[in-house]
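Form P-L/3: holo structure prediction, ligand 2-acetamido-2-deoxy-beta-D-glucopyranose.
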Amino acid sequence: MAKLIIPLLLLFLLFVFSPSNAVSYNLVSFGARPDGRADATKPFLRAWASACQSVRPSTIHVPRGRYLMKPAVFRGPCKSRILIKIDGTILAPNNYYAIGNAGNWLLFVQVTGLSVLGGTLDARGAGFWACRNAGRNCPAGARTITFNYANNILISGLTSINSQTTHVVVNRCNNVMVQKVQILAPDQSPNTDGIHVQFSTGVTIRSSGIRTGDDCISIGPGTSNLWIDHIACGPGHGISIGSLGKDLRESGVQNVTVKNAVFTGTDNGVRIKTWARPSSGYVRGVLYENIIMKDVKNPIIIDQRYCPDNQGCSRQSSGIKINQVAYKRIRGTSATQVAVKFDCSSSNPCKGIRLHNIRLTYLNRPAQSSCTNARGTTSGFVIPSSCL
Ligand SMILES: *[C@@H]1O[C@H](CO)[C@@H](O)[C@H](O)[C@H]1NC(C)=O
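OUTPUT (holo model):
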């Protein structure tokens, strides 16, 4: 008898503790209905609570269909890894106040080891933009999906459309991979940035397409070791470090790589933008490499004179110290005459700018470059000829 029981027991233990034996929770079995009308918020939060309590890795499956969600906070820490597999669409309520007052629609806080795979998030932002554009009394607006204080996060194959404000926010995180995402909003929609990263380290964004009314990717204070690769950007405002230096005491931005990107019809290509105010912040160690510009208004730009409506910055200069910024193999067309513009701070000139193999044209002729308070070197061919 024991001869049989022991192998069976071993088999049983193997089954229970095998890492592939993840627990699975189906959103529909928590009471959600895929009809785009029934409120799926509570079912989703109950599924999250179960997954978060599970000592074994778990999967929350969102089947095909449309699920209406109000603002929701998915809080950690959780006991094990969680995968949210989305085959359907998560839909915001029609009334834009429902998420617009919350600031965040889908918010993940203090979660470690989360994957979000597939799915569409539709925030239905049009009503909110119309309110803003009409200058009426509107709610502040919601970001579509935000990660705060989260570590080891994978977001893959997600589509986000028509966010009220920024689509994806990575804030105070470590080790985040965003890949194969599609972000879509009309080019005139206000402040619909694609992905915003700040106070985070070890973030990778790759193989993604971003078309919005504001920055495709914006990079805020406290960002380090950021890797951006294979991005199609446009329409939109380009990939921007900044705005930085609004505050006197501010964390710097360090070690940013943007590689293999195509910008189509954007306002900017690669931009660094700082307020014309005193600040302790800095930007150092940035590499832009192998980039194609198609009809971009400001393909390469550093603007340290940002001072909208002269808000306490007129006749001041930026305290942000910009150092070691390299531009390599950047080619294509500018939609304005000045394709390379370094407008740096008079009190903190840009240092260590490097240009290598640049070819930017305007109306089939070499474009122009313009430098203020900028120092650096060139190598290879540089068209328009450098003013460094
Ligand atoms: C810079 O960031 C990359 C990731 O983007 C990382 O692999 C590399 O180690 C970082 N370099 C330094 C000096 O920290």
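COMMENT: Confidence is low (pLDDT under 50) at residues 10-19.
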